[in-house]
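step 3/5: co-fold with adenosine-5'-triphosphate
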Amino acid sequence: MSHTELAKQPRRSLPIGQVVAGAVKGLAPHLLARNPVMAVVAIGTVVCFGLTPIAFAQGENGGFALTIALLLLATVLFATGAESLAESRGKAHAGALRKTKGELKAAKLNADGTTSAVTADSLRKGDRVKVVAGELIPADGDIVEGAASINESAVTGESAPVLREAGTDNSGVSAGTKVLSDQLIIEVSANPGESLLDRMIALVEGASRQKTPSELALSVLLAMLTLVFLIVVVTLVPMAAFVGVETSTVMLVALLVCLIPTTIGGLLPAIGIAGMERAMRANLVAKSGKAVEIAGSIDTLLLDKTGTITLGDRRATEFAPCQQVPRQRVRDVAFLTSLEDPTPEGRSIVTLATEQGVDVQLSEEADGATFEAFSAETRLSGVDLTSGKKLRKGAPNAIAEWVKAKGGDIPSDYNQVIERISRDGATPIAVAENQQILGVVALSDVIKSGIAEKFAELRAMGIKTVMITGDNPITASAIAATAGVDDYIAEATPERKLALIREEQASGRLVAMVGDGTNDAPALAQADLGLAMNSGTQAAREAANMVDLDSDPGKLISAVEIGKQLLVTRGALTTFSLANDVAKYFVILPALFAASFPALGVLDVMNLHSPTTAVLAAVLFNALIIPALIPFALRGVSVKAASATVLLRRNLLIYGLGGLLLPFPAIKLLDMLIALFI
Ligand SMILES: Nc1ncnc2c1ncn2[C@@H]1O[C@H](COP(=O)(O)OP(=O)(O)OP(=O)(O)O)[C@@H](O)[C@H]1O
Ligand SMILES: [K+]
Ligand SMILES: [Mg+2]
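step 4/5: write C-alpha cells
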C-alpha cells in the first residue's frame, strides 16, 4: 500500500478491548483525583457498596443500595471510558502518521566527510545526514546543503512533488518523506522521541497531558459547584432530622450525584482530546492543547506576502533603467550583485541577465570581491569590488537611503519607474553603483489561487487579516487589493512585525501569525497562535506553536474552525449538564420527603411510580447521558462561519433549554420501565 492510500484510508474500527482497559485503568485513585466531580461519584460508589451488606443485615432494602452502587460505578466507567475512547482515536491517527518512521536508515555524516550507516533512531539533534535520490529522509530537519524535489505523501497524503532547498524559506523536511531527485545534506532538528509528531502523541496520551488554562478554569468551577452541592446535601440531614424525617444515606448519595455536574465532568477530557485529534486529522500538529483552544478565539491574523499570499517564487522579468542609464548597465550591475546571492530573487536575476546575453567574462570583475548577503533588516544585498566600486541592490527606499548617505541624488524618474513596476503587484529591486541609482529590476510573483475566498471566510468569522511585507507600499497595496486582505503594512522589518503583534495584543486582541522564514520566527513566537509551514525553516517551526504538515497558509481557517468547535462544544455540554441537573433535583427531592410530607407532592410534577423507582430512574439517566453524549463530544458542534459570540449565544439557548426539558420525559420513561421489574 502506498503512503497516499494510507493517509486517505477511512479510519479503522475501534479497538474495544483497548478502550475498556483504558476505562478500568482510569479508576486508579491518582487519575480520578484529577477530576473532582468524578472523584466524588467514585467515593459515593464506595459508600453505597459499603452500606449494601449493612442494609441486608438490618433487613432493609439492600438491593436498592447495591443497584445505586452499581449505577454509580457505571457512571464513573462511562466517564473514564469516554476519555479512553478519545485517546485511542488520537493515538490511532498519530500512529498511522508515525508508522513510516519505523525502520528508517540514515547515512550519518562524519567529521572527516565520510558517512556511516546508522538507524534513524540513533540520530541526535545537530547530526548531519546525507540523503540521495530514491531514499527516505530519516529524521525531521533542515536542509543545509543542496536542493531537491521531495515526495511528502507520507506526512501529507499529497503525492505531488515539492521543492525544498537550503538557505531558503523552504528548507524544512520531514522524516519518512522521499527524495526524488538530487542529494541533500540535512541537519537533524530533534532527538529521538522529541519530534513534532512525538510531542503531539504525548498531548493526547493520559500521562503527559496537561489541562489547558480554560479547561483548568472550568474544572475549578465544577469543583466549586460540587462542593456547594455537597454542603447542601450534608446540611439536609440535620434539617430533615429537625422536622422528624430520617434520611437514607444511599438516597442522599444519589441526590448528590444527580446534582453535581457529572455530564460535563465526565466528558471534559474527551472534548479536549477530540479537539487535538481533529487538528491532527487536518494535518495540523499542535504543540499544546492551548494552541488549539486559542485558535478558536483569534481576532487578528497577520500574514507575510511572499510565499504566503503569493507563490513566493519571485522571478526577474525586466531591467528598467532610470534617466539616461543604458539598460545593459542595469543588467550588468544587477548581475554582479547577484553572483553570490543564493536567494530565489538573486538567482532569478542571474538567470534573466544570462538569458539577455550578459557577458560571462564580466563575472571576473568580481574576483576577490566581498559579497554582502541579503538581510531582512537592511533589505539590501551586493558586492564591494576590488576596484573600489560598491554595488548594491535592494528595496527601493533602502537603496535611496544608501545612495543619499553617500551624497548621491535620486533620479527624477525613480518613483515613476518603481510605480509602473509595482502597480500590478511586481516587486521592484533598485540597483545602485556607489552614489548613483542605475535602475530597477522587476520581480514578478503570482497570488495563490483561491486565497481571496479564504480571506472572505475569515472576515465572516470576525477575524481581521493584515498583510505585512518587506515590499514597497505600491506593490503591497496592489497585492492586498487583489488578495482581499483587510489591511496591509509595507516596508516592514522583522522588528516592525513584532511591534505590530505587541500593539494588537496590548489592545486586548488575540493575534495569529502565519509564517515560514527565519525572520518570521520572533513574530511566530510572540503571536498567541504561531502557525509555521512544515516546509519552513527550522527556526520558524521551532518558534511556532502549531505546524501545518501541508504547508498551506490557508490552513489557518481549519485551525480556527477546530478551535471554535472545541470551545463551543465545551460550552454547549457545560450548559446542557447544568440545566440537566436542575430537572433531577425535582425528581429526587420529592422522593426523599414524599412519605413524610404529602405537601411536597406539588413538586412531584411527573407522578412517578414510587420514591425508589424515581431515584433509580434519575441515577440511571444521569449515568446513561454520558455515553449518549460521547459521539457529540467527539464529533463536536458544527460551526458555520460565524463569530464565537454568536455561536455561543445560539448554543446556550438550544442546549440550555434542551438540557432542562429532556430529563423529564426520559426519567418518566425509565421510571415506567423500572416499575415493570419491581
Ligand atoms: N536577494 C535580495 N537582495 C536584495 N534585496 C532583496 C532581496 N530579496 C528581497 N529584497 C528586497 O527586500 C524586501 C524585503 O524582503 P523580505 O523577503 O524580507 O520581505 P518580507 O518581510 O519577508 O515580506 P514578504 O515576504 O512579503 O516579502 C523585498 O521587498 C525586496 O525589495
Ligand atoms: K449530575
Ligand atoms: Mg518573506
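step 5/5: annotate
Residues 8-100+193-278 form one domain.
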